[in-house]
Design a protein that fits this description.
The protein has eleven helices and seven strands. By secondary structure, it is of the alpha/beta class. It has a five-stranded parallel sheet with strand order 2-3-1-6-7. Strands 4-5 form a two-stranded antiparallel ribbon. It is globular and about 60 Å long. The chain starts with 13 loop residues before the first helix and ends with a helix. The mean pLDDT is about 90.
């Protein structure tokens, strides 16, 4: 590279030195605030409207749920995820916003030092009615992939497989009910007002019978101070004021 005119910087201690610095950054990150809210609240969409944030799901190439894998994307190795996370923390200021996550984002694991801080960090919570959350999920997981050329049949098969994976937590009867509603909604090869309404029904049922229960249980295990609750827009305004935007 040097012979071809590129500026070359040699890092003292090589990759091991970089890795050591990355681990140091993860041990003592700048103070952050957790953005929480039930599944479909639009947390990811909100943090991208802020100046200072770390998108954990993007770094892990996973949305952090049974339906979380990014279409066509593979997850990074653990060390690569940690290095990317350290680089992100190098570039942020106080009151950086992190989206609420479990310790595992797909196969990537949050470093213990980071997750321990997340459990006790101050929290802002989005409050959104379940129907609006179902609309958000339908747009992100069905309408957008369909508009980009993914077949509805393939989307439906992926959802059915993922729902089957949580059968034990849902319960057999509830799992079969949701899969029946899903199958009926995906029979049509178009997305119009009627078929979207059918999709909202099974998504809403999945939210209330699985994701909302999981969220409330997870929240009960954490000792956070809630510094603000409100609508998506109100939370955005509050976090912007917190970051002096």
């Amino acid at each position: 590279m040097y012979q071809n005119g590129c500026e070359v910087v040699r890092v003292d201690s090589g990759y091991k030195g970089l890795r050591h610095e990355a681990l140091k950054a993860l041990e003592n990150p700048a103070p952050f605030v957790i953005l929480s809210g039930m599944t479909g609240s639009g947390k990811t969409r909100l943090i991208h409207k802020l100046r200072h944030f770390v998108d954990l799901e993007n770094l892990a190439s996973h949305r952090g749920s049974a339906f979380g894998s990014h279409f066509g994307a593979s997850q990074p190795q653990q060390a690569t995820f940690e290095n990317k996370l350290a680089q992100a923390f190098y570039q942020v200021a106080d009151n950086t916003i992190l989206e609420d996550e479990s310790p595992n984002i797909g196969r990537c694991h949050l470093p213990e030092s980071i997750y321990a801080r997340m459990v006790t960090a101050p929290m802002v919570m989005i409050e959104t009615p379940v129907r609006l959350r179902a609309i958000e999920i339908c747009q992100e997981y069905i309408q957008t992939p369909f508009a980009k050329g993914r077949h509805l049949c393939a989307i439906g098969q992926s959802f059915a497989q993922n729902i089957e994976r949580i059968r034990n937590k849902l319960g057999g009867l509830e799992c079969d009910k949701i899969k029946s509603l899903l199958s009926e909604a995906f029979k049509a090869d178009v997305l119009d007002e009627d078929t979207i309404a059918a999709h909202l029904d099974w998504i809403e049922r999945l939210l209330t019978h699985y994701y909302d229960k999981q969220y409330l249980y997870s929240l009960s295990l954490k000792s956070r101070k809630t510094i603000f609750k409100g609508s998506w827009k109100d939370c955005l305004d509050f976090l912007k004021s917190l970051q002096n935007e």
